[in-house]
Design goal:
The complex is a heterodimer of chains A (314) and B (747). Chain A is built from 10 helices and 13 strands. By secondary structure, chain A is an alpha+beta fold. The longest helix of chain A has 17 residues, at 2-18. The radius of gyration of chain A is 20 Å and the shape is globular. In chain B, 43% of the residues are buried. In chain B, strands 1, 2, 3, 6, 12, 13, 15 and 16 form an 8-stranded mixed β-sheet that branches. Chain B has 19 helices and 16 strands. In chain B, strand 4 and strand 5 form a beta hairpin. Among the domains of chain B are: 478-585, Immunoglobulin-like (Sandwich); 587-683, Immunoglobulin-like (Sandwich), CATH 2.60.40. The chains are: A alpha+beta (314), B alpha+beta (747).
Chain lengths: 314, 747
C-alpha cells in the first residue's frame, strides 16, 4: 500500500496538469468546441469526469477528436489568448521538446519546428541555451506579407499555416525575423505514414512545396492537453497557458502567468522589432545547468559550430 | 497610304530585314532552342522532384530565380523610360532606336515574371492569388503592377507599329506570306489621313506619359518585396528609388548592347551611328553615377550606423572568402569602368561603348545577386545547421540551366520579333537629321577582346538523407505483447455528491509503462469475504476508465466505517493479470463562499457521518483550493482543517469567464483514509474578460486597410482608364479608315 501511495502521489503530481481532466476526454467546454465539427457519433454513451469533478455522459465518438474545419481553424478558440513562457535558466539543450514535437506531429527528420541556439549576447557575457519555437507574434510579419492568406493570425493569438492554400512563395520565410519557418523542399518522408485528415490546427501531414512551422498545438488545447514540447521537457523549461485565464503550466506546476512574468522579469525576444511575440523568455539567471552540459550528445562538428556562433574559444 | 521617297527606302530596307534569313540565323535559332530545351528539362526536373533540386533552402529561400526576375524587369526599363522620355521630349535622334527599346520592354516583361513562377512551390495553386488575394502583400502589388505594366508596354509597342504595319499591308512581304493578314489586321486600317494621324499621335503621347510613372512604380513595388521585410540590407527606405535607378541603368545598357548586335546583323551602320551610341552612353553614365551614388549612400549609412545585423551583411560583402570579388565588380567596376570609357574621348567608340554597356549589365546582374543572397544568408538568428546548403547558397545546374535558358529565350524572341517587326520604325516620326555625313567621320574598330564571363561552376545537388525515425506507437495492441506484465492503478474519488472509481491499465514494454486501450476492467465492492461487482468498463485512449459507485453501498455500515474496492484485469491473450485495491472512509465535503467588505472567503467543511447519524467534523487535514484553467488546476490557496472547517482568502485579481464566473475546487488529495475528496462551486468573483475588439482592417487581416484599397482603386482605374481610351481610339482610327477606303476602291 505504501508503494502504491508513493507512486500514486507521483502520479498525482503529474496528474495535476492533466488533472482529473486527463482521463477525461470530455468537459463541458470541450463538448461545445466539438459540437460543430464532424464527429463520429456512435450512439454509445460513456461517462467521463470534467476537470472540476463533474461526471458527464458523452458519446463514445467524442473521445477521438476529429480536427476542426478549415473555417473554424481560421477563427481561433473564443476567449483564449495562448502564451508560452520559456525558462532559459533550466534549459540544457536536451532537445526532448523537439523529439516530442516531431513524434507528435509525425514530422520528417530534420523538420525542426523548435530550434536551439547557444546565445551569447556580447563579447564578455555568459552563454546560454535558447530554444525557439514559433513566437506567434501579435504583429506577425509573416502574416502581413502572405499573398493568399495561407498564414493567418487567430483571435486566440495563434499563427497558423493552411498548407492546402499555401502557394509556396516563401515570402513569409523571408519576412520572419526569427527563422521560425521551414519549407518542404521535397516530398516529406513521414515516419508514420498514416492518412490523417488535414487541418491547419494539426498542421499534419506537411505537404511538398509548402511552408510548415510550430503551430502552438491548438488541436491539443481543444482536448485540454498540453503541447508535446511542454510535456516532454525533462527540466520544465516550457510553460504554456491561456493569458486570459492568467495561468500557465509546465506539466507539473500551475502558476499565475502575471506573477511568473513579474517575479522572474520575463522579456520577449527582440522586442525592438515590434513583432510583439506571444512567447516570453525568463532570463538565464541562477541557472540549473552549466552551458557546457548542453554539448553532451552533440557531434564534434555541431559543438564546434555552436562554439563558433557564440564566439567561444577554449 | 501615300509615302515619300525616303520612307520607301526605309521600307525596302526593313523588308529585307523581315524576309531574309541566313544560315547563321537558322543556326542561331537551333542553338537557342537547344539551350531552351535544356531549361525545359530542368523545369521538368524541378516540377516533378520539388524545389529540393535547387540550391535554395530554409535560409536562402530565394536564389537565382529572383535575381533573374529583378534583372529582366530592370532591363524592361529600356523601353518604358528611355523610349517614353525620348518620345515625349521629341529627341530627334530617337527614331532608329526606340523600336528596339520597346521590344526589349515587352520581351523582358514577359520573361521576368516567369522567374517568379519558378520560385513558387505550388504552381498548381496559383489560382489562389485570385481566389484569396490579399492586397496587403507586396507580392500581390507586384502581380497587379506587372500585369498592368506589361499590358501598357504591349499597347505602346502596338501603337508604334501601326504605321509600319499599314505600309507592309500596302506593300506585302513576298516570303512567309501568312504574315500579311496579320499586318493588315494590326494596321487598323490606318491610311495616314490627317484625322488618323492626329489621333495616333495623341494616344502615343498619352501612353508615354502614363507609362513613365507606371514603370517607376513597378520597380518600386519590386523593391518593396524586399524593403518591407525586417532584414538587414533590405529594410531600407532608399530601396525603391535605388531599384528604379539601377533598373534604368541596366535597361540603357541592354539597349546599347542590342543596338550594337543588330547593327552588326542587319548592317544598320547608316542608320544607327556613333551619335546614337554617344548620346545613349551619356544617359547611361549619368544613370551609372546616380546608381553609384545610391550605392555609396546605402552602404555608408549602414556601415556608419554599424547595427549588428547590418554589419554582418557588410562583412560578408567585404570578406575575400565570400563576396568581395563580386562586390568590387558590381559596385566599382560596374560603375567606374563605363564612366571612364565614355568620358575619356580616346577610349570612346562604338565598340568600347557597347563593351562598357555589357559590363554595366553584367555588374547589375551581380548586384542583384548581392542584394538577395548575402542578406538571406545573414538572418537575425544564426544559421545553426550542419548541412552546408542550409548555411550557404550555391545554385544547382537546374537553376543555371533555367537562367541561361531565360537569356536564350530573350535572344530568340528578339530575333524572331525582328523577323516580324521592323526593328527600326519605317515611318519616322519627328524630325530627323541626316547623319550620313557624320557617319563618314566615324572610325569603327572591331572589338577583338572576347569577353569571358566566368560563371560560378555548378554545384552538385546534395541529396539529403532523411533518417526516418520510428514512432513509438501509443495504445499498443494486445497482439504485440507476449506475456507482458501489466499494471493496474485504482483510485477513489469523492467529488461533490458522486463517488467514482478510476482505473488505469498499462503494460510494461521496453522498460516503460504504455497505456492499454480497449481492455475490460471489473470493479468490485469488497465487504468482508464477499465481492460485489459494481461494473465492467473498457479502458479508453489513455488506458483509463471509471465507474460510479452506487449510493446504496455507502448507506451500509462498511467495515468499521471503511469501504474497500477492487479493480481487476483478467489475463487476456499474452497479457498478465493485474488487480488493485483501495480502502476509504466516506466523508462529505461542502464548499461555501462568503464576503466581508472587500475580502472574499472560500470555506470548506468536511464531516463524517457518526454512528448515530450525526455529523462528526474531520480535522487536521490539508485542503487545497484550485481554480480550473484550460490545462490544469491553478492553486489559489491552502488551509488546514480545524474542527471540520478550512477557510482561505480568495485572490481578487483572478480572471473569470466573459461574465466573471469561475469555479473553485477544494481538494483533499490522495489521503490514506479518505482517498481523493473534492467539492466544487461556481461564483461570480472573477474579473470578467474584456470583450474582444476585433481588428477588421489591418496589414495582418483578411481585409486590407481602407486607404490601401482606395489608393489601389484610384491608381489602377487611372491607368486602365487610359488604356481603354487608347484602345477606343485605335478602334476610331480603324473606323475612320473604313470610311476612307470606299472612294479608293471605287476609283
Amino acid at each position: 500500500m505504501k508503494d502504491k501511495s508513493a507512486s500514486r502521489r507521483k502520479f498525482l503530481k503529474l496528474g495535476v496538469a492533466a488533472g482529473a481532466g486527463a482521463l477525461i476526454v470530455g468537459g463541458s467546454k470541450m463538448l461545445s468546441a466539438f459540437s460543430e465539427t464532424e464527429s463520429r457519433e456512435t450512439g454509445e454513451k460513456i461517462k467521463v469526469l470534467t476537470q472540476d469533478g463533474k461526471l458527464v455522459e458523452v458519446d463514445k465518438g467524442h473521445t477521438c477528436c476529429e480536427p476542426v474545419s478549415n473555417q473554424e481553424a481560421r477563427q481561433g478558440m473564443p476567449g483564449k489568448k495562448m502564451v508560452m513562457v520559456i525558462d532559459l535558466a533550466k534549459c540544457r539543450n536536451a532537445r526532448k521538446c523537439l523529439e516530442g514535437c516531431q513524434s507528435m506531429h509525425n514530422l520528417p527528420a530534420h523538420m525542426d519546428w523548435i530550434k536551439f541556439y547557444l546565445m551569447r549576447d556580447g563579447q564578455d557575457t555568459a552563454p546560454y541555451w535558447f530554444p525557439k519555437p514559433c513566437l506567434h507574434c501579435n504583429n506577425p510579419p509573416c502574416v502581413k506579407v502572405c499573398p493568399v492568406g495561407a498564414t493567418f493570425k487567430r483571435t486566440d493569438g495563434i499563427v497558423l499555416v493552411d498548407n492546402e492554400r499555401c502557394i509556396g512563395c516563401k515570402f513569409c520565410m523571408a519576412a520572419c525575423p526569427y527563422s521560425s519557418r521551414v519549407f518542404n523542399w521535397e516530398e516529406p518522408k513521414l515516419p508514420n505514414p498514416t492518412k490523417e485528415r488535414y487541418s491547419p490546427e494539426t498542421s499534419a501531414p506537411p505537404k511538398i512545396g509548402t511552408v510548415s512551422k510550430c503551430d502552438f498545438c491548438p488541436d491539443m488545447v481543444r482536448k485540454g492537453e498540453l503541447p508535446s514540447c511542454v510535456t516532454s521537457c525533462p527540466n520544465g523549461v516550457y510553460w504554456y497557458g491561456d493569458k486570459n485565464q492568467d495561468s500557465v503550466t509546465n506539466g507539473t506546476e500551475t502558476v499565475r502567468f502575471s506573477e511568473l512574468i513579474h517575479d522572474r522579469a520575463a522579456y520577449r525576444f527582440m522586442e525592438e522589432l515590434g513583432t510583439e511575440p506571444s512567447v516570453y523568455y525568463l532570463p538565464p539567471v541562477d541557472r540549473a545547468f552549466d552551458y557546457k552540459v548542453g554539448f553532451e550528445g552533440l557531434s564534434e562538428e555541431e559543438t564546434a559550430l555552436y562554439k563558433k556562433e557564440a564566439r567561444l574559444t577554449e | 497610304m501615300k509615302v515619300d521617297e525616303k520612307t520607301m527606302r526605309n521600307l525596302d530596307f526593313s523588308r529585307r530585314q523581315l524576309e531574309s534569313i541566313s544560315k547563321k540565323g537558322i543556326a542561331f535559332i537551333v542553338a537557342m532552342l537547344l539551350i531552351i530545351s535544356v531549361g525545359v528539362y530542368a523545369l521538368y526536373v524541378q516540377i516533378t522532384q520539388g524545389h529540393g533540386v535547387t540550391g535554395m533552402r530554409d535560409n536562402v529561400v530565394w536564389g537565382l530565380y529572383i535575381v533573374n526576375f529583378i534583372f529582366f524587369i530592370g532591363i524592361s526599363y529600356a523601353g518604358a523610360l528611355i523610349s517614353g522620355i525620348l518620345h515625349l521630349l521629341r529627341v530627334p535622334w530617337r527614331s532608329p532606336i526606340i523600336r528596339m527599346a520597346e521590344m526589349i520592354t515587352v520581351i523582358s516583361t514577359m520573361i521576368g515574371p516567369t522567374y517568379i513562377l519558378l520560385c513558387i512551390g505550388r504552381l498548381d495553386r496559383l489560382p489562389n492569388l485570385l481566389l484569396h488575394g490579399r492586397i496587403q502583400s507586396p507580392i500581390i502589388w507586384d502581380v497587379i503592377a506587372i500585369t498592368t505594366y506589361l499590358s501598357g508596354s504591349i499597347l505602346f509597342l502596338y501603337l508604334a507599329m501601326i504605321r509600319d504595319a499599314a505600309l507592309l499591308r500596302d506593300n506585302p512581304v513576298t516570303r512567309a506570306k501568312w504574315r500579311n493578314p496579320i499586318y493588315r489586321f494590326i494596321s487598323a486600317r490606318y491610311q495616314d489621313t490627317t484625322k488618323q494621324k492626329e489621333l495616333l499621335n495623341m494616344v502615343t503621347d498619352l501612353l508615354s506619359i502614363v507609362i513613365i510613372p507606371l514603370a517607376i512604380l513597378v520597380h518600386s513595388v519590386l523593391a518593396w518585396i524586399f524593403g518591407m521585410t525586417l532584414r538587414p540590407g533590405w529594410h531600407s527606405t532608399i530601396f525603391a528609388p535605388y531599384f528604379v535607378v539601377a533598373a534604368v541603368y541596366s535597361g540603357t545598357g541592354v539597349l546599347i548592347v542590342v543596338m550594337w548586335v543588330f547593327r552588326k546583323i542587319y548592317h544598320l551602320e547608316s542608320y544607327i551611328t556613333k551619335i546614337h551610341f554617344n548620346y545613349l552612353a551619356l544617359i547611361m553614365i549619368v544613370l551609372g553615377a546616380l546608381y553609384g551614388y545610391f550605392t555609396f549612400s546605402e552602404y555608408l549609412t549602414s556601415w556608419y550606423g554599424s547595427i549588428k545585423w547590418d554589419m554582418e551583411v557588410l562583412f560578408r560583402l567585404f570578406s575575400p572568402k565570400e563576396y568581395y570579388g563580386a562586390f568590387i565588380f558590381a559596385v566599382f567596376i560596374g560603375v567606374l569602368l563605363p564612366i571612364i570609357i565614355v568620358t575619356v574621348p580616346r577610349l570612346r567608340n562604338i565598340n568600347t561603348i557597347a563593351f562598357a554597356a555589357l559590363i554595366a549589365v553584367l555588374a547589375l546582374w551581380v548586384k542583384r545577386y548581392l542584394i538577395i543572397i548575402p542578406t538571406l544568408e545573414s538572418p537575425l538568428l544564426p544559421v545553426h545547421d550542419l548541412r552546408p546548403e542550409y548555411a550557404h547558397y550555391s545554385p544547382t545546374w537546374v537553376e543555371w540551366a533555367l537562367t541561361v535558358a531565360g537569356v536564350a529565350l530573350f535572344l530568340l524572341l528578339f530575333y524572331l520579333f525582328s523577323k516580324f517587326i521592323p526593328i527600326m520604325p519605317v515611318v519616322r516620326t519627328g524630325e530627323e537629321k541626316d547623319y550620313s555625313r557624320l557617319r563618314k567621320l566615324v572610325f569603327e574598330k572591331q572589338m577583338k577582346k572576347i569577353i569571358q564571363v566566368r560563371k560560378k561552376s555548378d554545384s552538385i545537388a546534395i541529396a539529403i538523407i532523411l533518417v526516418v525515425t520510428g514512432l513509438v506507437a501509443t495504445g499498443a495492441k494486445a497482439q504485440d505483447e507476449t506475456g507482458t506484465k501489466t499494471s493496474l492503478r485504482l483510485e477513489y474519488l469523492n467529488t461533490d455528491a458522486t463517488r467514482v472509481l478510476t482505473a488505469k491499465l498499462s503494460a510494461k514494454k521496453e522498460g516503460k509503462f504504455v497505456p492499454l486501450e480497449g481492455m475490460k476492467i471489473k470493479f468490485y465492492y469488497v465487504s468482508g469475504k464477499e465481492k460485489k461487482l459494481i461494473g465492467t468498463e473498457e479502458t479508453g485512449a489513455k488506458g483509463k476508465c471509471l465507474v460510479e459507485i452506487p449510493a446504496d453501498i455507502f448507506a451500509s455500515e462498511g467495515n468499521k466505517g471503511a469501504y474497500n474496492f477492487e479493480a481487476a484485469f483478467a489475463a487476456s491473450r499474452n497479457l498478465m493479470n493485474a488487480s488493485s485495491s483501495v480502502g476509504v472512509r466516506n466523508v462529505n465535503m461542502e464548499l461555501k463562499f462568503s464576503k466581508k467588505d472587500t475580502v472574499k472567503f472560500v470555506n470548506c467543511k468536511l464531516w463524517e457521518r457518526g454512528k448515530d447519524g450525526t455529523p462528526v467534523p474531520v480535522s487536521d487535514l490539508k485542503v487545497q483550493f484550485y481554480v480550473p484553467r484550460t490545462f490544469s488546476l491553478l492553486k489559489v490557496g491552502e488551509a488546514t482543517l480545524a474542527e471540520g472547517e478550512a477557510t482561505i482568502d480568495f485572490p481578487v485579481t483572478l480572471p473569470g469567464d466573459s461574465i466573471g464566473d469561475l469555479t473553485v475546487i477544494a481538494k483533499i488529495e490522495d489521503n490514506e483514509t479518505y482517498g481523493n475528496v473534492q467539492a466544487s462551486g461556481t461564483i461570480n468573483w472573477g474579473k470578467p474578460l474584456p470583450p474582444e475588439v476585433p481588428v477588421r482592417r489591418g496589414l495582418g487581416d483578411t481585409n486590407a486597410p481602407l486607404w490601401m484599397v482606395y489608393t489601389l482603386i484610384v491608381l489602377l482605374s487611372l491607368v486602365w482608364f487610359h488604356y481603354m481610351y487608347v484602345v477606343f481610339t485605335v478602334f476610331r482610327i480603324r473606323y475612320l479608315g473604313r470610311k476612307n477606303a470606299k472612294p479608293e476602291s471605287v476609283s
